[in-house]
């Protein structure tokens, strides 16, 4: 049987029964298409006792159609990345029940008990364990898939298995090119067009973005999630689930860390002009900054401990190397955070953290703040040695407005 | 027919006839085993009118035997690397007439008219075009196999095609670990053992070597030759041929540049105590330093011109990026030159440039100079912005002895 798109609820239900043992034979099941964004088809199959998710990848982008073909290999990559992540932090990713290569479909745990982090942040909910969970996810996945832990054969084979040009190309363009020129794919609030035009003239900024892009293209350091924005995180008071690693490839570790930090900061910029009480919004901004600090500190402590006790390559075991490495990684992460912030503000794909500000003038104010934060992070990252310095720098940007 | 080692001259001759049209049917052919070092079997097949080379890779290291297995995939990698290099600098590599995957054998041009560069240098011959040829080889092969020229799909496919863990692992260990500890594989002149022990205590040096190793492991920047020492270069007054790219993989561009610069400097160190007239040896040292300068300048001009006119990715077209990139690449190259010098002095595989100094005391003096040059290059590379600064620094090291 060759690939075919699920054509009916009955089709999806039969597949669910075939690929899991969650349901009893006589249990009535229903199907709901829930979507995961714009690219794939995602279904929830539920009965009285249980539910699961089926994600199917078509050979093109769902919302565009056959005019934008996209390799179905992305679903293999997603399944394998989820399974690898589960080896190191099983509590932080949805369980994969089954992966069917022919139907390009993953059958996985339903994480319906968790809320999308973007919504959580727009609603200013404080989740006590979120930052620690994200820091641990990053420490574990980025260490155990790097040359610090893997031997030459394992590492090279990981690089080979996660060659992912279709999805890398999307990031290469949307992060590192479009927002730095007057590209037709960009979407720019007319009120900040002058700011965007000024940014396009900033050679110092563009040089730094070129350096970050070169690392994104070249540096096969660790297996990345590759798309770690707030929309890929589901969380509640007690748990966190990181989903959708179809952009996974072996790239620079700072890209994942920076992507999620950038999303914290997009919400910080949004809160400056969101609806609701000013004090409450300021307080949430401080909660987000403290979260960035906790996220990095959890990451750094976890990663450093792994380096101290589990680095196999003796030439990479020096404590001085760990110090140097973690400082460089912080700087990289800040740079990538800056590119995420800028591309979400004037590039193709915007975020609710800013878009939900209805008044165009107020939205422009937050967008200007976002651009400013992005630029400062990219251009001044080389002067930063600690996360406390980062938080000071960010607070200054918020205060001096 | 599955793989089998050539078992007789007749076997080799039949293979040569089958895989080339160089010989006439009634031409008498003879076979000579010439060796290419320690790893493979290499034969010259010659008749009255022509000759060719056949290189066969066995599933183990030739001089060790079955106790050191080595993937035969290396011969595919060598054939494909030679063919790719020939696309960009056909005059600088031996022509591949045929590659037989099953017999793990390459049939290629006989470069018997050229002399091995290591011998050339030990004999203090000045070849007028050598440095320019090496610079051009590096500029062309490193540019056209990088993200500056290739699109995402081409580049990722190149990375995948040249995954080469067996041979990478050899370099990872011999360059970046053994020489920095008391490793049983090391071979150390007893007279400089104290110098080696001092080097093993130098944490600042070991940190820099760890950084260079991390780039060697991670940075998939361009297709490298991977083993560009003097023994891989054949040259005469008018031409240069670069052979044996079985270590090819997509790695940091500075590794190839540094390897060959390191080999120039190993000869500089050797000339301090080689037999023969002192003035002649000093003069040759100056010729070698001038050669390093020409090599880098040819490389830099060629590479910069490629960047200016052929970089496809618009975000990497900034002139400021080219300046930054070439400065960083010079620093990387100096670091790798340092690791090549050190590993050839106290590591497993030594070079004739030093080994042919018969007197142990004099050899020790040259070895100490080599270690000093290696350490200075590795530790001070970050302060260097131009090749003239490098040459000044090297001259100072030679004078202050």
TrEMBL record, chains A, B:
Its EC number is 2.7.1.100. Keywords: ATP-binding, Kinase, Nucleotide-binding, Transferase. The keyword Nucleus does not apply. It comes from the Bacteria. InterPro entries: Aminoglycoside_PTrfase, Kinase-like_dom_sf, Methylthioribose_kinase. Pfam families: APH. It is an enzyme of class 2 (transferase). One of its GO terms (molecular function) is S-methyl-5-thioribose kinase activity. Residues 31-281 form the Aminoglycoside phosphotransferase domain. SUPFAM superfamilies: Protein kinase-like (PK-like). Homodimer. Belongs to the methylthioribose kinase family. This is S-methyl-5-thioribose kinase. It comes from Amphritea atlantica. The lineage of its organism: Bacteria, Pseudomonadati, Pseudomonadota, Gammaproteobacteria, Oceanospirillales. The gene is mtnK.
């Amino acid at each position: 049987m060759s690939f075919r798109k699920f054509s009916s609820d009955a089709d999806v239900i039969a597949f669910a029964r075939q690929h899991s043992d969650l349901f009893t034979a006589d249990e009535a099941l229903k199907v709901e298409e829930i979507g995961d964004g714009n690219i794939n088809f995602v279904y929830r199959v539920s009965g009285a006792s249980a539910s699961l998710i089926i994600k199917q990848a078509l050979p093109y982008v769902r919302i565009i159609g056959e005019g934008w073909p996209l390799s179905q290999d992305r679903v293999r990559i997603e399944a394998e990345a989820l399974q690898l992540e589960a080896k190191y932090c099983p509590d932080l990713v949805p369980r994969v029940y089954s992966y069917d290569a022919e139907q390009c479909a993953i059958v996985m745990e339903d994480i319906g008990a968790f809320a999308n982090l973007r919504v959580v942040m727009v609603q200013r909910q404080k989740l006590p364990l979120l930052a620690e969970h994200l820091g641990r996810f990053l420490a574990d996945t980025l260490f155990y898939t790097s040359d610090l832990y893997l031997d030459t054969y394992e590492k090279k084979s990981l690089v080979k298995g996660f060659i992912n040009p279709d999805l890398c190309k999307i990031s290469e363009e949307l992060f590192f090119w479009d927002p730095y020129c007057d590209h037709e794919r960009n979407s720019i609030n007319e009120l900040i067009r002058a700011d965007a035009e000024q940014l396009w003239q900033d050679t110092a900024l563009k040089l730094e973005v070129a350096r970050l892009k070169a690392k994104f293209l070249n540096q096969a350091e660790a297996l990345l999630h590759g798309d770690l924005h707030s929309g890929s995180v589901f969380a509640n008071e007690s748990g966190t689930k990181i989903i959708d690693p179809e952009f996974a490839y072996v790239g620079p570790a700072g890209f994942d860390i920076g992507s999620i930090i950038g999303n914290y900061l997009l919400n910080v910029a949004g809160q400056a002009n969101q609806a609701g009480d000013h004090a409450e919004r300021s307080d949430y901004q401080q909660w987000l900054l403290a979260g960035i600090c906790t996220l990095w500190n959890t990451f750094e402590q976890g990663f450093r401990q792994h380096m101290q006790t589990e680095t196999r390559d003796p030439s990479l075991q020096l404590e001085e190397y760990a110090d140097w490495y973690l400082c460089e990684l912080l700087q990289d992460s800040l740079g990538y955070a800056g590119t995420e912030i800028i591309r979400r503000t004037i590039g193709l794909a915007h975020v609710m953290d800013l878009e939900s500000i209805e008044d165009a003038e107020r939205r422009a104010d937050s967008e200007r703040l976002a651009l400013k934060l992005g630029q400062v992070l990219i251009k001044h990252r080389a002067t930063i040695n600690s996360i406390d310095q980062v938080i000071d720098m960010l607070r200054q940007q918020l205060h001096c407005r």
